[in-house]
Inverse folding.
């Protein structure tokens, strides 16, 4: 049995919105790493359509 502590450690602290620092409803797809709120705001600038 081996537990990958590295991944666990990495997972913590990395999942934060890089825009507001929150960790709610974080969107990791597209390597955005921003929360849903900020995503909707920046989506316009990025070129994404409405989310949700
Ligand atoms: Zn945010």
């Amino acid at each position: 049995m081996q537990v990958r502590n590295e991944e666990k450690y990495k997972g913590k602290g990395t999942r934060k919105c890089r825009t507001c620092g929150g960790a709610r409803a974080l969107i990791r797809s597209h390597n955005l790493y921003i929360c849903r709120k900020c995503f909707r705001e920046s989506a316009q600038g990025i070129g994404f359509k409405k989310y949700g």
